[in-house]
Amino acid sequence: MNIGYMYILKCSDGSYYTGSTKNLNRRLRQHNRGVGCKHTSKRLPVKLVYYEIHEYIGYAFLREKQIQGWSRSKKEALIARNLNDLHDLANCKNDSHFRNLKSDK
Q1: Rg of the chain's alpha carbons, rounded to an integer?
Q2: Among 2, 33, 88, 105, which residue has the fewest nearby CB atoms (within 10 Å)?
């Protein structure tokens, strides 16, 4: 099996970094040594706040890309494992969407 990990780090400045790897422990050591990632190397130390295990590294990479597009509040709901907030934050909140929902009723 070629398992992979999708992970979220909290940096010293409070920002989040989302990545994927085949070896989570080694990658965390690299991040904290400032190796391989410009974002985290300038915001040390970093702390692992969330991770998922995927059957294939490719799935972990796809999940990384999905979460990278999320808002900070949505990432924090995932980290806290607050599924109710996560579902609420996934709903579109723009005006045109709300108008269309009202007209459907």
Answers
A1: 17
A2: 105
Task: Give the whole-angstrom CA distance, residue 22 versus residue 75.
Answer: 22
Contact 11, 40 (CB under 8 A): yes
Q: What is the tens place of the pLDDT at every residue in 28-87?
A: 999 999 987 898 999 999 999 999 999 999 999 999 999 999 999 999 999 999 877 776
**Residue bearing tokens 């999940």:** 63
List the structure tokens of 51.
């991770």
Question: Cα separations (Å) of 104 from 90, 94, 97, 99, 100?
Answer: 20, 16, 11, 9, 6
Q: What angle do CA 68, 38, 13 make, to 5 degrees?
A: 70
In order of 22, 35, 42, the CA distances from 12 in angstroms are: 24, 16, 9
Positions of E strands within the chain: 4-10, 16-21, 47-54
Q: What is the DSSP letter of 55?
A: S
* Of 69, 59, 87, 29, residue with least CA distance to 9: 29
